[in-house]
Structure formats: C-alpha cells, structure tokens
Specification:
Layout (H helix, E strand, L loop, with lengths): L6 H26 L3 H4 L8 H35 L6
Helix pairs in contact: 1-3
C-alpha cells in the first residue's frame, strides 16, 4: 500500500493530533465538572456539559487524524526500511 501524504506531513499530524487530544481532553473534563475556572464568570457558558460534549467530539476527530496519520507514518517507515527505490 502506498502512503497518501508525505512522511513529514504524517509525523507533523501525529504530533499535533497528540497534543490536541491531551489538551482538549483536559479542557473538556474541566467543562464537564463545571470547574469554576471554565464556568465561573458572567461571560462563560452556563451549560458546561454541552460544551464538554462538543469538545469531546473534537477529541474523537483528532483521534481519527492521529490513527490515520500514524498509519501513514508507519507506511513510510516500512517503505524506507525495505529499501524500495521510488521514481516519483
């Protein structure tokens, strides 16, 4: 199977997706628990659980990106370990 994206793009996507998953999971957990730092002021949303649901949906999207880009990076790694010569 041939990779769809370049190796640099795949590894960059893996790193960005991993950070997004971690950071958004923490922010979503804070909203779900109605932590005062996220829902304590007048301008913050009142329904923290609804906001948390939206954030966790974004976490799922980033997890899909992480898996896809990780597989693409592994394909590049497997292809380079095999010693295949590419004429692209």
């Amino acid at each position: 199977m041939k990779p769809v994206v370049s190796a640099m793009n795949a590894w960059s996507c893996v790193v960005v997706s991993l950070f997004a998953i971690v950071i958004l999971s923490i922010i979503g957990a804070l909203f779900k628990s109605n932590h005062h730092s996220m829902t304590g002021s007048e301008e913050d949303p009142e329904n923290g659980a609804a906001v948390a649901g939206t954030i966790f949906t974004a976490v799922i999207v980033y997890a899909v990106f992480f898996v896809f880009c990780g597989l693409q990076a592994l394909l590049h790694q497997r292809q380079s370990n095999r010693g295949a010569i590419s004429l692209n």
